[in-house]
Specification:
The protein has 204 residues and is mainly alpha-helical. Helix content is 41%, strand content 10%. β1 and β2 form a beta hairpin.
Length: 204
Amino acid sequence: MNYIKVKRVLDVVLSFLGLIILMPLLLLICLFIKLDSKGPVVFKQTRLGLNGNVFQIYKFRSMYVGAEKEGVYEQKGDARVTRIGRIIRKTSMDEFPQFFNIIKGDMSIIGPRPALTYHPWPFDEYTDLQKKRFHVRPGLTGLAQINGRKGLEWDQRIQYDVEYVETLTFHGDFNIFLKTILVVLTMRNNVNTEITVRNKKEKN
């Protein structure tokens, strides 16, 4: 059995275990999100997945409803982020619903982070080399995430993604998994570690 098949089995088993172990925490996060601001608990967004196929990614909602109209990505101290949103973003807990994406087969635990359908550019505008990042399922974390996260320029991120696909092994995935834990715990390269005060408009 090749590693891709083993990887899929590990993804499903570990995601089920993660959901079971984290269930009390997940329920608390859901409650706090509902108490903190109006809107759904889970945020859904269209992303590019395996072979460039489109899927809906799940995240705990960490911004006010309609925040995307003011920009695609968050900035340091982004005032659109809710109070509970700051906490779950700093700790990366907003990504936990992606365990469901993994079980469904949309994603993997380790792999290139799924890009938006239109940003940094549409699927057809990736070069043949860059399209290698779509040869595997996108991941909850990946090589680019342990080497700079969103602080990297897109060309650099994609370069790491292609490198990951070309050197895919269990040892490599395990190494990324361990380093991700360190990155999350230290909040290294996390744009959400800077807090700002929301303006009056956002308080209303």
